[in-house]
C-alpha cells in the first residue's frame, strides 16, 4: 500500500457513533476533530458472506462521509459471525437472548473492517478474530441480559464489559473485537498521511 506524505495539518474525522471507537482512538492519542456518524442501511444481503458484508458496509460508510480537503475520515463496521450467520446489534432482549444461546459453548468470528477516506480515495482493511464463549448457564444468560450491556453491541455482547467473564479465549485482535483494531488502524491512518503519536 503506497503511503501518502505525512501532513501535520490533516485532521481526523471519526465517522462513527460508537463511543468504544472514540475511546480506542484515544488510546492512540487521537482526538477526532469531528464526529459525523453516517446513516446507512446495514441490512446484510441474502447469503452475503460476513467478511464481504463488513467490508461493504465500512466502504459504504466512507462513501457517505465526504471529507473536506484537510480531513481524513475513519469508519468501521463490526459483525459477529457464527458459521455463515451474521449477527449484528440485537433488536431487543429476546434477540440478544437468542444470539447468546447460539454463541454459547462455541467458537465464532468477530470481523471488523476499517475504512479511511481522503478526498475520493478510500482504503479498506478487515481484521478477523476467533472468539470462544464458554457454555452459558441459564443464570449466566439472564444475569448478563439484566446488565443491558448487550445493547448496541454486535452479537449481543461486549468483550470489554461484563461479558469478559464469559470469554476464556480469543485468537487475534482484542481491539478488533471491541470495534477498532488499533494496530491495523494506526498503520492505515499513517499510510493515509495522518500524523499522531510522535514524529512521522
Ligand atoms: C463484539 C463486540 C461489539 N462491540 C460493539 C462495537 C460497535 O459499537 C458495535 C458494532 O456495531 P457497528 O455497526 O460496527 O457500529 P455502531 O453502530 O456501534 O457505530 P457506527 O456504525 O456509527 O460506527 O458493537 C463492542 O463494543 N464489543 C464487542 O465485544
UniProtKB/TrEMBL annotation:
Nucleoside triphosphate pyrophosphatase that hydrolyzes dTTP and UTP. May have a dual role in cell division arrest and in preventing the incorporation of modified nucleotides into cellular nucleic acids. Its cofactor is a divalent metal cation. Belongs to the Maf family. YhdE subfamily. It is an enzyme of class 3 (hydrolase). SUPFAM superfamilies: ITPase-like. Its main location: cytoplasm. It is found in: Cytoplasm. It comes from the Bacteria. This is dTTP/UTP pyrophosphatase. It catalyses: UTP + H2O = UMP + diphosphate + H(+); dTTP + H2O = dTMP + diphosphate + H(+). GO terms for cellular component: cytoplasm. One of its GO terms (biological process) is nucleotide metabolic process. It holds the Pfam family Maf. Keywords: Cytoplasm, Hydrolase, Nucleotide metabolism. The record marks 20, 78, 160 as: Important for substrate specificity. The active site is at 77 (proton acceptor). InterPro entries: ITPase-like_fam, Maf-like.
Amino acid at each position: 500500500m503506497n503511503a501518502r506524505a505525512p501532513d501535520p495539518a490533516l485532521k481526523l474525522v471519526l465517522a462513527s457513533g460508537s463511543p468504544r471507537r472514540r475511546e480506542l482512538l484515544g488510546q492512540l492519542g487521537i482526538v477526532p476533530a469531528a464526529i459525523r456518524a453516517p446513516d446507512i442501511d446495514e441490512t446484510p444481503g441474502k447469503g452475503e458472506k460476513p467478511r464481504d458484508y463488513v467490508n461493504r458496509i465500512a466502504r459504504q460508510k466512507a462513501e457517505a462521509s465526504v471529507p473536506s480537503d484537510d480531513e481524513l475520515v475513519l469508519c468501521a463496521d463490526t459483525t459477529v459471525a457464527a458459521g455463515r450467520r451474521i449477527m449484528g446489534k440485537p433488536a431487543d432482549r429476546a434477540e440478544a437472548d437468542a444470539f447468546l444461546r447460539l454463541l454459547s459453548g462455541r467458537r465464532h468470528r468477530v470481523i471488523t473492517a476499517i475504512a479511511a477516506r481522503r478526498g475520493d480515495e478510500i482504503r479498506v482493511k478487515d481484521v478477523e478474530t476467533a472468539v470462544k464463549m464458554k457454555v452459558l448457564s441459564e443464570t449466566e444468560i439472564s444475569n448478563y441480559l439484566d446488565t443491558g450491556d448487550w445493547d448496541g453491541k454486535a452479537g449481543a455482547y461486549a468483550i470489554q464489559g461484563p461479558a469478559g467473564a464469559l470469554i476464556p479465549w480469543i485468537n487475534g485482535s482484542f481491539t478488533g473485537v471491541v470495534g477498532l483494531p488499533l494496530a491495523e488502524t494506526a498503520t492505515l491512518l499513517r499510510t493515509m498521511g495522518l500524523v499522531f503519536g510522535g514524529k512521522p
